[in-house]
Amino acid sequence: MNRTSGLHHDYRVTAILTWCGLAVVCALYVTIPLVPVIATTFSVPPSHALWISSAFSLAYAIGFLFNGVLSHKFGTKQMMFYGLIALSVVSPLLGLVQNLTLLTALRAIQGLAASTFAPAVLTYIVKAYPVQKRVTAIGFVSMGFLLAGIIGQLFSGIIEVNVGWQYVFFTLSVIYLLSAILLGILIPKSELPQKDVDKGTLRQQLKIIRSISSLRYCYIVTVTLLLSFVGMYVALGNYLIIPPFELSDDHILMIRAAGIVGMLASPFTGLFVKKFGAIHVLHGGLLLAIAGLTLLSISTSLPVLIGMSVIYVTGISVVVPSLISLIGSISGIARGLAVTLYTFVLFIGATLGPIVAINLIKIGNSTVTFGTLASIVAVGLLASFFIKIESDSA
Predict the structure, then answer these.
(1) For position 142, what pLDDT does the model report?
(2) CATH placement of domain 205-394
(3) Is 31 within 8 Å of 53 (Cβ atoms)?
(4) CA 19, CA 31: separation in Å to the nearest integer?
(5) Among 135, 394, 148, which residue's Cα sits nearest to residue 268?
């Protein structure tokens, strides 16, 4: 830890981690606008093409379970660096394949490579930053993760329209290579790697996590976040292309971009937590998200739909860093494994998001779809009232 005693004074480090997080998580979202063109290219229904998103998300979530342990063994910086290198190698292969099955398999491999980053960067921050700076740093990195949900779609939509969907992955490869170089040169190590990970210690941490009931409620909240986030954008895009709106792809991209305004709240979560407390900020963010989704479900006005999507995103942007802070505080010495499980559960939600949204769209209208997503977040809000922080762990 000595190597990072002054880390919290170096905002350059936080900026680089935020950028790399944005770049990595963009890979999760770039295929959302590509589903129609992939379906056309390979002559399959959209429900089959959707697996290029779900395969990535599922592999991404499963990878967290292994990569959290590997981060302890090899070091968090090393995991982030080699994960970016792996992404730079795998990504261009996706643009070269001529078979949907192979494309889906490569997306799963890309998801495994991408899964090295999130648990490593969150553990890096939890270990390297002092408590009073931790929430702000997590807020910036979380903003990068959430921005990826918008920027990833804008990025792929623009490139697909102008030069073809294959170049989305070629361009990502270059971005990952440059990001790896940047991280490798400018980010200090947070700890010495542990060559032999003590399985007994991991079992002890798991036992601690299982004994803390508040963590279970934290994870219930967690699964609702990206499930509703990804589901909302899939559903919104679907409803905006049909009557009464019938918007073009360019207009839909601009509406998605409006969500960036809501994400700007994330870096300020640390200030909100200091003033109101993490639990109250969590409750407020979830209420805001529910309000946004509920009004999305009943409105037929385009300006209101745009505004409510921003309100929803603002709520989620505040919830994510406050929830990570709570998990870190509640879990004590097991925080490394607890954060790893958080990332696993978070992106299981991302895997379920498009599947839930597509099936809701099939059986109902926008009221049913957005109303159901609001109900899912409401379950998270209910669970959040059972989260307690012991005074010795806060």
Answers:
(1) 83
(2) 1.20.1250.20
(3) yes
(4) 20
(5) 135
Backbone angles phi, psi at 195, to 5 degrees: -65, -30
- DSSP classification of residue 9: G
CA angle, corner 162, sides to 155 and 28, nearest 5?
A: 25
CATH of 1-197, one of 1.20.1250.20, 2.40.10.10, 3.30.590.10, 1.25.40.10: 1.20.1250.20
Q: How far apart are CA 198 and CA 95, in angstroms?
A: 41
Are 25 and 84 spatial neighbours (Cβ–Cβ below 8 Å)?
A: no
Which among 180, 59, 56, 60 has a CA at the least distance from the CA of 115? 60
Work out the pLDDT band at 5, boundaries 50, 70, 90.
very low
- Give the Cα separation of 18 and 92 in Å (integer): 23
Question: Among 20-29, 67-76, 240-249, 362-371, which range has the highest average pLDDT?
Answer: 20-29
DSSP string, 29-71: HTTTTTHHHHHHHTT--HHHHTHHHHHHHHHHHHHHHHHHHHH
